[in-house]
Amino acid sequence: MKKNISFSSILALAATFMLFNIHAAFSQGSPTLKGTVERIKVHGKGLEGNLSGDSPDREVSVYLPPSYKANSKRRYPVVYLLHGFTDNDAKLYGIEKHWMSLPDVLDEAFTKGRKQEIIFVTPNAFTRFQGSMYSSSVTNGNWEEYVAKELVSYIDQHYRTIPKAESRGLAGHSMGGFGAMRIGQQYPDVFSSLYLLSPCCLEATNNVPQDTALQAKLQAIQTPADLEKADFFTKAMFASAAAWSPNPQKPPFFVDLPLENSQVQPLVLAKWTANRPLATIDRNIFQIRKLRALAFDAGSQDRGIAVSIKELNKVLTSYSVPHTYEEYEGDHINKVAERIGTKLLDFYSKNLSFEQSKK
Questions:
Q1: How far is residue 93's CA from residue 83's CA, in Å, rounded to a whole number?
Q2: Which residue in 296, 76, 20 sits closest to 172, CA to CA?
Q3: Which of 348, 358, 47 minimizes the C-alpha distance to 170?
Q4: SS3 label, residue 37
Q5: Helix 266-273 crosses helix 232-244 at what angle (to 10 degrees)?
Q6: What angle do CA 115, 317, 351 make, to 5 degrees?
Q7: Which of 104, 141, 218, 235 could make an S-S bridge to 50, C-beta 3.0–4.6 Å?
Q8: How far apart are CA 151 and CA 25, in angstroms?
């Protein structure tokens, strides 16, 4: 006996077939399913009046994962990813040419790698000194509160986040890794999990060369234009001074350098040491223990940083703080994109809460 198939049944079958194809395309990483990047500006009240003259209205790049615009009710965890020295958010997000494009890495991981989707946020911390060190001083402004309070508050108000510490991670590369450790250990009530990619500046000692060539380079910097043309190490010295040894009575840069008139300045070095995570970790260990998860890695060819994270691993182990530590074959940048798309996303998929609650 023949059965009549109703028009409504045909429509139901067609709809099912379309949904199946959409799901299959997503699972196979269709090139049409990509995240989107929005570049916005977020004002920092704590950045107002900084002596460097940097704008308190900071560019911020926001990566929204592939399903964000298609599903208007879904909320997402957020990873705040801090960029490195001399970089900015536009470089990291592929807006300007760079050694990696974060959106490409995330698109690949979310569509083909089937990683759990996360919003990524990166503020532009490029300053007059080419990097804020994510520290707070009258010269740079209050970068710690800007990241941990003002930026987080803005993102929670304007995007569909899961606004609780369990659903927020803080990560960074190089200077950004230092910033993630510095800020994350102060605000475990804001960020529950930290991932440090080749973090700089952890060590407890400051090896400042005392040769006459370095002294000449420092003395040659008289104007912002001079600083822009300086070598990387000289720029890093000025950026560190702006972050850790500000001097509001010393224009035009408003900093104290660790070398002056061919003499080492012990007080300046002491101030720098007081900002180094391995020098301060003992007093911060109670805050670090409040974190849900902590991971850090570096390439074996990134020798100074590889030594410092090995020491961080040793100290955390002595305090019985759970953490993940890895030294891999690579240098300061050549494996970072790959590790973000695999190790970092796996870490946050495991340690962030994806529960769809607003509070």
A1: 10
A2: 296
A3: 348
A4: strand
A5: 80
A6: 20
A7: 141
A8: 35
Enter the DSSP assignment of 295: E
Strand, coil or helix: what is 285? helix
In order of start, what are the domains of the chain with their CATH numbers?
36-204+277-351 (3.40.50.1820), 212-271 (no CATH)
The rounded distance, in Å, linking the Cα atoms of 164 and 357 is 9
Q: State the CB neighbour count (10 A cutoff) for residue 206.
A: 19
Of 113, 125, 97, the residue nearest 65 (C-alpha): 113
- Cα separation, 148 vs 187, whole angstroms: 7
In whole angstroms, what is the distance from residue 359 CA to residue 356 CA?
Answer: 9
324-345 burial string, b = 16+ CB within 10 Å, else e?
ebebeebbbbebbbebbbebbb
Blockwise average pLDDT, block size 10, the chain, 359 residues: 43 39 40 86 98 98 96 96 98 95 96 91 97 98 98 98 98 98 98 98 79 82 91 94 98 93 88 96 97 98 97 98 98 97 97 82
The predicted model scores a pTM of 0.89
Torsion, Cα 28 337 348 283, to 10 degrees, reads: 180
Find out whether 195 and 347 touch, Cβ atoms under 8 Å.
yes
What is the strand order of the sheet 193-197 is part of? 36-43, 57-64, 119-123, 78-82, 168-173, 193-197, 293-299, 324-328
